């Protein structure tokens, strides 16, 4: 298994100023240069909802994660004094649109959709999950099933490769760039790209032999293995990348400043020990403060390499 060597060297050396191409939708301002939407200064542009709506990144079974997050959301209710409702989302696009339209207030956006949420929906990320020692992140893996005839990325030529969605970092952007940069394999020309919609779908698709190969976030795969949704003997990894930042959690830009601070307090004061959240995210044990400008720099560079547009529809 190789790592994202050639691709990252090209990105970091050839596109060192790529983050300068990132810009917010005209409806938002960024006067302090931190690359996220400023909180409105005019009180009439601020909102103070009686119920906060929270959404976790799209997953195969939202009901499972409604339960996983239940204790955390109860904690947020105590800290903020607001009701908090879990909102199951079916796609990255639907999640972004929900925040852009004002129907979503607090959310975890996956790695790849984070920049689009920031640019188009006024998302203000401030934290992500991390281990107790401060380590964080996940790797992209290209997986297949034993007996598929695929032992290395080059063997995908002439076959199907399952991606999740076009906004996903590990589920599309990084692997498609990698396949072309390191192996000379271009989508449509050298292999057939198919889209499953979610990492869970791609992993299940490979385990059930519906897809010969798929690019996925190994953090999702580990949780599915832990829950027994798939078995280790059903999956074989043929590529593992370097580490990427994981899901970023944040707030809609136009919530009242004091409410935004209370929401942050809820994340950073949550006690993980013995909770459903800890049981699901076994490698994590805290919410670590982050900045979009620094922690998502490499993701914006990958977007630039792929010609991703932040023009909002």
From TrEMBL:
It holds the Pfam family Phosphonate-bd. The keyword Signal applies. Residues 51-284 form the Solute-binding protein family 3/N-terminal domain. SUPFAM superfamilies: Periplasmic binding protein-like II (SSF53850). Keywords: Signal. Residues 1-20 form the signal peptide. The keyword Signal applies. Belongs to the phosphate/phosphite/phosphonate binding protein family. PANTHER family: PHOSPHONATES-BINDING PERIPLASMIC PROTEIN. This is Phosphate/phosphite/phosphonate ABC transporter substrate-binding protein. It comes from Sulfurospirillum tamanense.
